[in-house]
Amino acid sequence: MRSGFLFATRAKLKPFLIEPLWPLAGFCDNRYRTDEECLRDDRESILFGPISDESLLGLPSPANAEDEEEEKDSCSPRKRFWEGIRAEANHIFQILQQDGPGFNAREALDTLQVMISPALVREVLLHILMSVNGANKQRCSRLGYKFFVWAGQQEGYKHTPNAYNLAMKIFAESEELKAMWRLVDEMTQSGLPVTPRTFNILICTCGEAGMARKVVERFIKSQGFNYRPYKHSFNAILHSLIIMSQYRLIEWVYQQMLLEGYQPDVLTYNVVLCAKFRLGKLDQFHRLLDEMRDKGTTPDLHTYNLLLHVLGKGDKPLAAVELLNYMTDVGCHPSVLHFTNLIDGLSRAGNLDACKYFFDEMINKGCEPDVVCYTVMITGYTVACEFEKAQELFEHMQKRGQLPNVFTYNSMIRGLCLAGRFEAACAMLKDMENKGCKPNFSVYCTLVSRLRNAGKVSEANDVINHMVERGHYLHLLSRFKGYRRC
Question: Annotated region Disordered: where (predicted)?
Answer without folding.
Answer: 52-74
